[in-house]
Specification:
single chain; six-stranded mixed beta sheet; binds xanthosine-5'-monophosphate; binds magnesium ion
């Protein structure tokens, strides 16, 4: 049990399990992207720990870059927009793998993928540590998923509650 600000969390996935699954994903990526020099695009802030552990176990030549996604309300008619900040690389013709901590409603990821697709990558896939399948509001093909988890709030291993708990080595779930 751990207290983060006003809320209590309990261990959901210990670091050892996360690392075991992460190295499986890295092995799968290494097979799939042999000779493709993939570009891993990690989405800050939440994915920084997962991206570090995942990419460290990828055994084929690759590049790594980071983006932030800024979601904002525009007008009532257009709804929420997503701005992708910080992508330095030209991704045209590249094999791109977006690295994310968690896909919840999947709205953020689908907008991010749409924007990256406009730049004509040779291929575009997602590697996410966690996926809340039952919360997904859009049909996204997620090729590399660490764990399918129930629709509950989780923190630790890079994920935060109000900016806190990113430093916890294990993944925790909000106590009910
Ligand atoms: P959507 O709904 O667009 O949201 O897929 C993705 C973003 O929402 C955040 N998120 C979480 N953050 N614990 C967190 O710490 C969670 O359980 C959680 N669910 C969603 C996260 O920033 C993700 O990128
Ligand atoms: Mg995130």
């Amino acid at each position: 049990m751990v207290q983060v600000k006003d809320k209590q969390f309990e261990v959901f996935l210990p670091e050892t399990e996360i690392l075991a699954r992460t190295s499986q994903l890295a092995a799968q990526l290494s097979r799939d992207y042999a000779n493709k020099e993939p570009l891993f695009v990690a989405v800050l802030n939440g994915s920084f720990i997962f991206a570090a552990d995942l990419i460290r176990h990828v055994s084929v030549p690759c590049h790594v870059s980071f983006v932030r996604v800024h979601s904002y309300q525009s007008t009532a008619s257009t709804g929420t927009l997503t701005e992708v900040i910080g992508l330095q690389e030209n991704i045209e013709g590249r094999h791109v793998v977006v690295v994310e901590d968690i896909v919840d409603t999947a709205l953020t990821m689908s907008r991010l993928l749409a924007q990256l697709r406009e730049q004509m990558p040779a291929s575009l896939e997602v590697a996410t540590l966690l996926c809340k399948r039952e919360a997904m509001q859009t049909d996204l093909a997620l090729k590399y998923v660490g764990f399918d988890i129930p629709n509950r709030f989780v923190v630790g291993y890079g994920l935060d509650y109000d900016g806190f708990a990113r430093n916890l080595p294990d993944l925790y779930v909000l106590k009910d």
